[in-house]
Amino acid sequence: MKAPAFSVLLAADFSLQALRRMRSGRERNVPLALLSGTHRRAVLLAACPQARAAGVAIGSSPSQALARCPRLLLLPADASAEAEAAAALLAVGVSLSPVVEDTAPGTCTLDLSGHPAAQREPRLQAAVAQLHALDLAVSAGLAATPLLALYAARECPAGQVRTIEHPRGFLARLPLAAAAPPEHLQPILAGWGVRTLGDLTDLPRAEIARRLGAEGLALWERAAGESVLPLTPARTTTEFVARHAFDHLISTLEPVQFILHRQLERLCLDLTNAGLAASRITLELHLEDPPDSVSDIALPDPCRDAATLGRVLATRLDSLHTASPVVGLTLRLAPTRPLLRQPGLLDAALRDPHGFAETLARTAALVGTERAGTPILEDSRRPDAFRLSTPPELLPPPAATTAAPTTVLGPPLRRFRPPRPAWVELSDHRPSFVRSSDVTGEVTACVGPWLASGEWWRADLTWQREEWDVQLDSGGLYRLLHLPDGWQLEGEYD
Amino acid sequence: MLPIPFSRSSSATTTTVTALRALIAQRHAAPAACSSAESGLPSGLPQLDQTLGGLPPAALTEIVCDASSCGGHLLLAGLLATTRQARQRIAFVDASDAFDPGSHEPSSLEHLVWVRPHTPEVAFAAADLLARDANLAWVVLELRGIPVHRLSRIPAPSWYRLQRSLESSGVAGLVLSAHPLAPCARVRLRLRQSHRLLSLDEDQSALITQLEPTVERHRSPFARLAGA
Fold first, then answer.
1. Of A156, A190, A223, which residue sits at a domain end?
2. B97: chain A residues, CB-CB within 8 Å
3. Is A35 within a domain?
4. Considering the entire predicted model, what is its pTM?
């Protein structure tokens, strides 16, 4: 007996499953049926078990179905949902074998010849479980030919794997309809008493060919589980994009996050299969009223973990407000090589770069993007000249000379932002008493004035100031500013 | 309804409660002593590091700045230098928006995440968020300069929530306040001595060594439970 080497992953009622897996929350509990279209004569093509249990029959009209099940949700096929489900099925297939054929919607054929015979079934079982986690109920067949594997998958309940080791015994019990006989041959075969595939293959092949022609011969070969066509390998994924069109207007975050979660799971699987990771996420939210909202997020480290990428997107979405409802979305991951870095003994890289980026993003969302970051001093003598930048991912080793802040004199200033207006009494042209909203007291010692000015070449930016450092009888040490329009308390030395 | 003070009922009950506390402390003291998290983190203040062995990680330390110009930001400068040397990261949640980058060595700012919230409530939320990130070694929360009536709006559970966040991530927390605020601070230090005018001409590193914080509270993790 030839060892089984082909497998088929089969998602029954594929269009219906594709529709269902893209529905979140309470919508998932509503009975669902698939319509043949949106025209008046549309009929039901498929219905979920809940609807079938309520008496909804395939082929019935929408009004007949609704009469049986008033809560029934009738939807036409969704191309974007089907594309996403097909991509998920294919991605799991590619994770098992390099030769994968996208045979039909919801059907994927794999060549498992490269796997050791003992490991084929456990690996298929794991793939079926993985698809279940992706909300696709799939059955798998494992056999010597692709056709036999397809028959096995059809005969197997969802979530299970069936291995065909004795094809003759298996085929003998299958009804003739499994081999899809041409309509005009069905009465002839029925007249011969052929009911199962075994009945047909018991007849001599040459006699069948002589009496029923090429179509009869092809049917006999299908009934024998023989396949002559090699697999057509599916194209390798080079673009990591997912699209979705909502069937109604979305104005809350939850449905968007749900779809993104689904898409990220599949895209990360595609990235893993390709040996790549995402370096950047681009999310386009298609709005009812253009223009679309586009978010471009650079990741601190290449990543292909769906949960991490989901958190990054959730953080961005938390602070996003759109002018009109969302009608669809496009998620694009920019691929790059995954970072392979061995942590050094003295390395000061981040322990969790994505976690840190997420913390910073959430903090920035809380306080404002311009109010959180690492301060960088501007190349200017203007007081309080700095900007905030994104904290570095890798901290360089400190230079030997910066072991202690030796070049800075005096205690740091605690700035009053904005400076407090002050009333200052002078004695012999020096401050002798200070009164402001925060501090009042007699000046016991002072030094100054310290004159400074800058950027005189630009009329709009030029500045000039006179500083005094004063010690008050209450014990505080403060910096006073004397400007043309009066005195100010700039801060407290602390 | 108020809780009933059970310790006043009889001396026998008091003995039982004390014995129970001692038993719990005994049960939990051993793993706590073994935990590496209990070794202190250097604060940059030689006096403090020598006497206390550093400040506790995964716990809250409060520095009460009693007087004006008593060195709260000087202590922060020491912490910035020490953490930079150790290549650790530090977050400074500056509720009063008073930090002056120009007063510090530029290289000691490279590892700093400075957060400038508008309100004390947002400051607490930001500190809580940062305290959960184990990429950071320290989270410093500056609450000086905030009016007392606004600080009083912060509910006590916020402090315990912050404490829990620090415990789970192992990040060390430091609060700079004008009055004792943090009920769950494991260490509370007080700075009383104001700078003099002459200190403006001294090196910051020399000034840091002159800081004399007094230890007002130093709890071991289970000291309160044991009734110590």
1. A223
2. 415, 417
3. no
4. 0.64
